[in-house]
Amino acid sequence: TMKWAFVVCAMVALSECLVQVPLERGKTARELLEEQGLWDEYRLKFPYNPMAKFDNRFAVGTESMTNDADLAYYGIISIGTPPQSFKVIFDTGSSNLWIPSIYCSSAACNNHDKFNPGLSSTYRHNGSPLSIQYGTGSMTGFLGYDTVTVGGIAVRNQIFGMSQSEATFMQYMRADGILGLAYPQLSASGATPVFDNMMKEGLVNQDLFSVYLSSNSQQGSVVTFGGTDPNHYTGSITWIPLSRDLYWQITVDSVTVNGQVVACNGGCQAIVDTGTSLIVGPQSSISNINTYVGASSQNGDYMVNCNSIAQMPDVTFHIHGQQFTLPASAYVRQSQYYGCRTGFGNGGDSLWILGDVFIRQYYSIFNRAQNMVGLARAR
């Protein structure tokens, strides 16, 4: 069973309380489909489009045929009085909170926990419609208000979405819903994000939160609201100003392999996104990186020989005058059915996404007070 969230209080002059939500690293949709021998069929039916959630052109339409089959981390929150529990992806690339509801009969709702507003004494109806696209598919539903408890912090009158329909692919995801942690301007239907309410109601010590994703074990990953956890990083924090206060978007100066610029020449824009599993970039840049590390393209994956990981070069992201280096052990993923593939994926236009492959190596701090991202070596 999963430990409920816990609050860490340090004995300092001002007692500083940090709220921590443990994240479970569960089986990914890809792993489930591979086990059932269905992956090849599904990847054709639901091609991966990680940019869907960052592109307004995708904001209309009912069924987006897209998947991010490698998402693995989710934490437990509760909604309502008495509390109804849900597994959610803490997603810094979107801003809405939504969970499945009893009014949804999609396949994706039938194998997930569904919220029943009739059982909550604190629920208030709003009724405005909600429609969101992700790299994992889409959901449509409506809005309501209730108490949302995250890591023991009760956020009262939090607006959230209840799904009435969900894209087919979502039935293969472990998480029930998504808790968005980007800026309010990004929020569909103008719904105030959870962290904005935490700040407004003074429920967090500092207006920032931090994410640690463990590399190897199922346990240990954590989101810390209101501070940073020194147990999870080493060395100094590099503070990077946002280039746009909408997503957690920063400027990358270049990407090098063995000292040679292989991508992002002259700079590029990147979103630090816990809700995307890979490092994603424009096709030409990604295929260039993969060529330099010795990967070959196969069915949209970039494959490498599992025995050559130790000999493969580091890939270095140059950001704000600092080097953020990924060894092959960090950017190669092994599947028991399909061999080894890199964590660099094609994403579309000019925008990059620094997803979980990057965040596992670099503890990430999302600072709303100063509109900065902090990065430090994870431990």
TrEMBL record:
PROSITE patterns assigned to the protein according to its UniProt record, in alphabetical order: ASP_PROTEASE, PEPTIDASE_A1
Protein known as: pepsin A
UniProt keyword list: Aspartyl protease, Digestion, Disulfide bond, Hydrolase, Protease, Signal, Zymogen
Keyword Hydrolase: yes
Source organism per UniProt: Sparus aurata (Gilthead sea bream)
Disulfide bonds: C104-C109, C264-C268, C306-C340
Coiled-coil ranges per UniProt: none
Signal peptide: 1-17
